[in-house]
Amino acid sequence: MSQAPRLPEITHLQFVVLAALIDNERRGRELRTLLKSYGLKNSAPAFYQMMGRLETAVASADDSAQLSDHAALLFSRLPDELVARAPELARRVAAQIGSDNPLIMKRVIQLVGLGPLDTQATAGLAGVLSEWAQREPEVQPFLPKDPTDTRELTSATQYLLANRNLDALTANSLSGWLKTVVTPVAVPRVETQTAL
Q1: Rounded to 5 degrees, what are φ and ψ at 191?
Q2: For residues 168 and 73, is the Cβ–Cβ distance under 8 A?
Q3: Contact assessment for residue 39 and residue 32, using Cβ atoms and an 8 Å cutoff
Q4: How does pLDDT run across 73-108, given as a tens digit for each residue?
Q5: Which range (20-24, 28-32, 58-62) has the least confidence?
Q6: What does DSSP assign to residue 157?
Q7: Coil, helix or strand for 132?
Q8: Main-chain phi, psi angles of 133, to 5 degrees
Q9: What digits encode the pLDDT tens for the residues 111-151?
Q10: Does residue 156 contact residue 90 with C-beta atoms inside 8 Å?
Q11: What is the DSSP string of the chain?
Q12: Which residues contact 123 (CB under 8 A, 6 or more apart)?
Protein backbone atom coordinates (compact mmCIF):
# COMPACT_ATOMS: atom_id res chain seq x y z
CA MET A 1 0.00 0.00 0.00
CA SER A 2 1.52 3.32 -1.02
CA GLN A 3 1.58 6.17 1.43
CA ALA A 4 0.08 9.54 0.57
CA PRO A 5 2.76 12.11 -0.17
CA ARG A 6 3.89 14.05 2.87
CA LEU A 7 2.45 17.55 2.69
CA PRO A 8 4.83 20.42 3.34
CA GLU A 9 4.37 22.72 6.32
CA ILE A 10 2.17 25.65 5.41
CA THR A 11 3.51 29.18 5.71
CA HIS A 12 1.71 32.33 6.76
CA LEU A 13 1.69 33.46 3.11
CA GLN A 14 0.09 30.20 2.00
CA PHE A 15 -2.51 30.53 4.77
CA VAL A 16 -3.63 33.93 3.49
CA VAL A 17 -3.70 32.65 -0.10
CA LEU A 18 -5.67 29.50 0.80
CA ALA A 19 -8.22 31.52 2.75
CA ALA A 20 -8.66 33.89 -0.21
CA LEU A 21 -9.07 30.99 -2.64
CA ILE A 22 -11.68 29.10 -0.63
CA ASP A 23 -14.60 30.76 -2.39
CA ASN A 24 -13.28 31.96 -5.75
CA GLU A 25 -10.51 31.68 -8.24
CA ARG A 26 -8.30 34.76 -8.21
CA ARG A 27 -5.57 36.08 -10.45
CA GLY A 28 -2.00 36.08 -9.23
CA ARG A 29 -1.93 39.86 -9.28
CA GLU A 30 -5.00 40.01 -7.03
CA LEU A 31 -3.44 37.59 -4.56
CA ARG A 32 -0.18 39.54 -4.49
CA THR A 33 -2.15 42.75 -3.83
CA LEU A 34 -4.02 40.99 -1.03
CA LEU A 35 -0.76 39.81 0.54
CA LYS A 36 0.62 43.33 0.29
CA SER A 37 -2.50 44.70 2.03
CA TYR A 38 -1.62 42.45 5.01
CA GLY A 39 1.93 43.79 4.97
CA LEU A 40 3.26 40.54 3.48
CA LYS A 41 5.62 41.32 0.64
CA ASN A 42 7.42 39.01 -1.72
CA SER A 43 8.74 39.22 -5.23
CA ALA A 44 6.79 37.94 -8.21
CA PRO A 45 9.12 34.94 -8.69
CA ALA A 46 8.91 34.04 -4.98
CA PHE A 47 5.11 34.35 -5.10
CA TYR A 48 4.79 32.04 -8.11
CA GLN A 49 7.19 29.53 -6.54
CA MET A 50 4.98 29.52 -3.44
CA MET A 51 1.88 28.99 -5.61
CA GLY A 52 3.65 26.13 -7.39
CA ARG A 53 4.36 24.45 -4.05
CA LEU A 54 0.69 24.84 -3.06
CA GLU A 55 -0.46 23.36 -6.37
CA THR A 56 1.96 20.46 -5.99
CA ALA A 57 0.65 19.77 -2.48
CA VAL A 58 -2.89 19.34 -3.81
CA ALA A 59 -2.10 18.05 -7.30
CA SER A 60 -3.33 14.59 -6.42
CA ALA A 61 -6.76 15.93 -5.43
CA ASP A 62 -9.20 14.63 -8.04
CA ASP A 63 -12.33 16.20 -6.62
CA SER A 64 -13.37 19.06 -4.35
CA ALA A 65 -13.87 16.74 -1.36
CA GLN A 66 -10.32 15.51 -1.63
CA LEU A 67 -9.10 19.07 -2.13
CA SER A 68 -11.04 20.09 0.98
CA ASP A 69 -9.34 17.26 2.86
CA HIS A 70 -5.95 18.57 1.76
CA ALA A 71 -6.89 22.10 2.81
CA ALA A 72 -8.02 20.78 6.21
CA LEU A 73 -4.77 18.89 6.64
CA LEU A 74 -2.70 21.93 5.72
CA PHE A 75 -4.75 24.16 8.03
CA SER A 76 -4.49 21.69 10.90
CA ARG A 77 -0.70 21.93 10.69
CA LEU A 78 -0.66 25.68 11.25
CA PRO A 79 0.67 26.69 14.65
CA ASP A 80 -1.93 28.18 16.98
CA GLU A 81 -0.03 31.48 17.07
CA LEU A 82 -0.41 31.90 13.31
CA VAL A 83 -4.11 31.06 13.35
CA ALA A 84 -4.65 33.53 16.20
CA ARG A 85 -2.96 36.34 14.22
CA ALA A 86 -5.50 36.05 11.41
CA PRO A 87 -8.85 35.58 13.17
CA GLU A 88 -11.12 36.55 10.28
CA LEU A 89 -9.28 34.30 7.84
CA ALA A 90 -9.39 31.44 10.35
CA ARG A 91 -13.16 31.90 10.75
CA ARG A 92 -13.56 31.80 6.96
CA VAL A 93 -11.71 28.49 6.82
CA ALA A 94 -13.87 27.12 9.67
CA ALA A 95 -17.03 28.28 7.89
CA GLN A 96 -15.99 26.55 4.66
CA ILE A 97 -14.68 23.23 5.95
CA GLY A 98 -15.99 23.06 9.54
CA SER A 99 -19.05 21.02 8.64
CA ASP A 100 -16.83 18.27 7.24
CA ASN A 101 -14.13 18.73 9.87
CA PRO A 102 -15.63 19.66 13.26
CA LEU A 103 -12.20 19.62 14.92
CA ILE A 104 -11.17 22.60 12.79
CA MET A 105 -14.37 24.39 13.76
CA LYS A 106 -13.67 23.74 17.44
CA ARG A 107 -10.04 24.81 17.16
CA VAL A 108 -10.77 28.05 15.35
CA ILE A 109 -13.53 29.12 17.73
CA GLN A 110 -11.39 28.25 20.74
CA LEU A 111 -8.43 30.23 19.37
CA VAL A 112 -10.10 33.29 17.84
CA GLY A 113 -13.67 33.29 19.11
CA LEU A 114 -16.69 34.16 17.04
CA GLY A 115 -15.92 37.81 16.36
CA PRO A 116 -18.35 40.69 16.70
CA LEU A 117 -22.00 39.67 16.34
CA ASP A 118 -24.97 41.85 15.50
CA THR A 119 -28.51 41.10 16.66
CA GLN A 120 -29.29 38.87 13.68
CA ALA A 121 -26.07 36.86 14.09
CA THR A 122 -26.75 36.46 17.81
CA ALA A 123 -30.25 35.14 17.09
CA GLY A 124 -28.83 32.71 14.52
CA LEU A 125 -26.23 31.40 16.98
CA ALA A 126 -28.93 31.03 19.66
CA GLY A 127 -30.91 28.92 17.17
CA VAL A 128 -27.93 26.67 16.43
CA LEU A 129 -27.29 26.10 20.15
CA SER A 130 -30.99 25.54 20.85
CA GLU A 131 -31.17 22.85 18.16
CA TRP A 132 -28.03 21.24 19.60
CA ALA A 133 -29.62 21.22 23.06
CA GLN A 134 -32.75 19.53 21.64
CA ARG A 135 -30.62 16.71 20.25
CA GLU A 136 -28.35 16.56 23.32
CA PRO A 137 -30.19 17.65 26.49
CA GLU A 138 -26.89 17.77 28.45
CA VAL A 139 -26.08 20.99 26.51
CA GLN A 140 -29.15 22.86 27.80
CA PRO A 141 -27.80 23.80 31.27
CA PHE A 142 -24.90 25.66 29.65
CA LEU A 143 -27.06 27.90 27.48
CA PRO A 144 -27.69 31.42 28.79
CA LYS A 145 -31.15 32.22 30.12
CA ASP A 146 -31.26 35.28 27.86
CA PRO A 147 -30.50 34.12 24.28
CA THR A 148 -30.06 37.76 23.18
CA ASP A 149 -27.07 38.29 25.51
CA THR A 150 -24.27 38.12 22.96
CA ARG A 151 -21.44 37.92 25.48
CA GLU A 152 -23.05 35.04 27.42
CA LEU A 153 -23.98 33.23 24.21
CA THR A 154 -20.47 33.41 22.71
CA SER A 155 -18.95 32.41 26.06
CA ALA A 156 -21.29 29.40 26.27
CA THR A 157 -20.43 28.45 22.69
CA GLN A 158 -16.70 28.54 23.37
CA TYR A 159 -17.13 26.55 26.58
CA LEU A 160 -19.28 23.90 24.91
CA LEU A 161 -16.90 23.53 21.97
CA ALA A 162 -13.96 23.18 24.34
CA ASN A 163 -15.69 20.48 26.38
CA ARG A 164 -18.04 18.58 24.05
CA ASN A 165 -17.81 16.85 20.72
CA LEU A 166 -19.83 18.31 17.87
CA ASP A 167 -22.30 15.98 16.24
CA ALA A 168 -22.54 16.15 12.44
CA LEU A 169 -25.79 18.16 12.44
CA THR A 170 -24.45 20.75 14.88
CA ALA A 171 -21.18 21.06 12.97
CA ASN A 172 -23.15 21.59 9.76
CA SER A 173 -25.47 24.16 11.39
CA LEU A 174 -22.60 26.01 13.03
CA SER A 175 -20.68 26.08 9.75
CA GLY A 176 -23.73 27.37 7.88
CA TRP A 177 -24.28 30.04 10.53
CA LEU A 178 -20.62 31.08 10.47
CA LYS A 179 -20.78 31.52 6.68
CA THR A 180 -23.38 34.25 7.22
CA VAL A 181 -21.19 36.01 9.78
CA VAL A 182 -17.66 36.00 8.39
CA THR A 183 -16.47 38.87 6.30
CA PRO A 184 -15.47 37.89 2.78
CA VAL A 185 -11.85 38.55 1.97
CA ALA A 186 -11.83 41.80 0.09
CA VAL A 187 -9.19 41.74 -2.56
CA PRO A 188 -7.99 45.26 -3.19
CA ARG A 189 -8.86 46.34 -6.68
CA VAL A 190 -6.01 46.24 -9.16
CA GLU A 191 -5.94 49.28 -11.39
CA THR A 192 -5.07 48.50 -14.97
CA GLN A 193 -4.24 50.93 -17.69
CA THR A 194 -5.70 50.42 -21.11
CA ALA A 195 -4.06 51.61 -24.26
CA LEU A 196 -6.05 54.07 -26.32
Answers
A1: -80, 130
A2: no
A3: no
A4: 777 777 888 788 778 888 888 888 888 889 999 999
A5: 58-62
A6: H
A7: helix
A8: -65, -30
A9: 999 999 999 999 999 999 999 999 999 999 999 999 999 99
A10: no
A11: -PPPPPPPPPPHHHHHHHHHHTTS---HHHHHHHHHHTT----HHHHHHHHHHHHHHTTT--SHHHHHHHHHHHHHTS-HHHHHH-HHHHHHHHHHHTTT-HHHHHHHHHHH------HHHHHHHHHHHHHHHHH-GGGGGGS-SSTT-HHHHHHHHHHHHHHSPPPHHHHHHHHHHHHHHSPPPPPPPPP-----
A12: 147, 148
For residue 52, which of 80, 91, 17, 101 has the smallest C-alpha distance? 17
CB-based burial, 135-171: b 16+ in 10 Å, e otherwise: eeeebeeebbeebeebeebbebbbebbeeeebeeebb
**In angstroms, rounded to a whole number, what is the distance separating the alpha carbons of residues 28 and 39?**
17
Residue range 148-183, pLDDT digits in tens: 999 999 999 999 999 999 999 999 999 999 988 886
Dihedrals φ, ψ of 138, to 5°?
A: -65, -15
Residue type, 128: V
| Single-letter amino acid code for the residue at 22 | I
- Mapped onto helix, strand or coil, the DSSP state of residue 27 is coil
